[in-house]
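Many introductory courses stop at the sequence. We go one step further.
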Amino acid sequence: MSSAALIVAAGSGQRFRTSTQHTAKQYHVLGDKAVLAHSLQTFLRHPRIDHVQVVIAKGDDTPYHELVASLALSPQDKAKLCASTYGGTSRQQSVWHGLQALHSTSPPPRFVLIHDAARPFVSESLIDSLVAALEAQAQAVLPVVDINDTIKHVADGVVTKTLERGHIKRAQTPQGFDFSAIFAAHKRMAEQAPHDASDDASIAELNNIPVMTIPGDTTNIKITHPEDLTSSPAHAQPRDVRVGNGFDVHRLVDDVDRGGLILGGITIPFDKKLKGHSDADVVLHALTDALLGALGQEDIGHHFPPSDPQWQQADSAQFLEDAAKRVHQAGYAIAHCDMTIICEAPKIGAHRDAMRQRIGEILAIGTARISIKATTTEGLGFCGRGEGIATQATVTLVPSSPPQPPRP
């Protein structure tokens, strides 16, 4: 029996938008990814869910497709994800459009879980419970949680009644349904006078479909206002910070062709130069490897092999630009770069700011995020004997908000 998830992400989120917050809440970054991405990823990875249908607003194609691309989905996840469809002017219309899209699949699903994108923390266990209840012949299943506060009925600012909270519950999504039953119910509602139900359990009730309740999850919160972001579970969790290290060494040789010593992206007057297949810039090489390492990718030699003639005497800025592009494509931003140059000569201090400026240009970040230090080995080893220069680099990456497009 196939099960589908229908995620409603077509709302404009007017209560969420403020004078400083213009992004629709489903695309606002929460923790390490957008609000919508949290639940989308949970449904795609759940073994009991066979199809995932997302309903988006007209005009949201670009942010939605960028969000999907940022998740780096597996082939199995991609196969589950249906082409997005557009919503309507109300939540009820948006769900109906999503149900119609699922109905066109062959065959249509047996069950459907209808979920609001504004609830990013749906758990695998809640999905399990909903599917199990549907498999046990329930036609509609609603997760609910208790209300702990005293509930008052208020009219014109005056309390008129204290309600019995023992019989009052807070409804959550996802809400589970027999697909044919909820499809027929929505179809009947669409053919009648306009009625904007706040959830799909209401549609079931209006069509005499019994709604079974199961325990919900108190962490399955709904993002309604901007302040809800700071009280969410993701806000309390550490962000997906990445740290990478890189190290490179090149031999010093006489500068017979007077090409100059290239270090940190600039040319330094010196009677020797670094030997290598490219321009042998140990600073940019170490920094490139640090960025690739933070992403968990292969090293610089894999991407730009010294056996390839196209990299003969190449400007190492190309390597660093490529690594930076990979960082942005993966949805990260460069928070800080720290490099230590190890050599007896030349003296680095006079050239430090120029190096930081050039590296900042290549990475498109401010020089305040770039640190360059220099040290010697007190005459010990190949660096101490003036036979070569080494560089150690460390970088810190943080999730970008939102993921930035690759630089051209």
